[in-house]
Amino acid sequence: MPKDQTVDPSRLPRHVAIIMDGNGRWAEKRNQPRLFGHKTGAESVRNIVETARELGLKVLTLYAFSSENWNRPETEVSGLMSILRKFLVSEISRMQKNGIRLSCIGDLERLPVSVRKVLLDSIEKTAHNTKMVLNLALSYGARDELARAARIIAEKCVAGSMMPSEITIDTVKSHLYTADLPDPDLLIRTGGEARLSNFLLWQVSYAEIFFTDVMWPDFRREVFLKAIANYQKRERRFGHTGAQLKKGSK
Ligand code: IPE
Ligand code: IPE
Ligand code: MG
Fold it and tell me: Which of the listed CATH numbers 3.40.1180.10, 3.30.499.10, 3.90.550.10, 2.40.37.10 matches domain 12-140+183-234?
């Protein structure tokens, strides 16, 4: 695959997380309704999931709907839910064929029953797949996630099964929605904005961040590979000096 030459397959990020932004503006620019942008965005999702799987990424997290997105007009919210449901129904056989395990983070209770049903069904059906985790952030907010973790930990302390003095970074990590996933190595945001919008605030502490002006409906394989190649050029220092890292690698 000559197009992939810039990506070193031996140094792939294990976990890539993407804030899929720009669907609405992409459609408006074409004098189309915003939902047309979301529909085309679903095709980008298909393309990016396929590329991630081909490359051999272990986890792909996609920010599909935030806890704040419930504040959008009712027609847009229900349109998005309908696209999501159709997407899940149409993708199940492809996920099975490609060994993809579906996972989900967020407040699923808020989703319409019809969406939740298909979602839980797909999660169950793909539970044995081991090639890649496709993790959808739905009705997700990092502040909600952290407050929820604090609540569960506090309840354990009150019940006497945990001591406040025992609470460590690992305790917090193990009470997040993402407890069984590695932290993202690379965070991509499409659509030209340079903000996190309440996404994985704890987990991206040391992620490399890649912002692009490309709108999500236009974000396909080629730009994705560019983002990964760019990631591979960076030196991740985790607080050390560059010299320390060079010494360690010798
Ligand atoms: C991202 O695109 C999809 C969701 C947030 C659900 P937007 O709908 O935010 O598109 P813009 O940012 O308005 O262009
Ligand atoms: C972030 O995009 C949420 C998703 C991509 C699902 P938004 O478009 O909702 O973010 P803001 O409102 O511009 O910060
Ligand atoms: Mg947006």
Answer: 3.40.1180.10
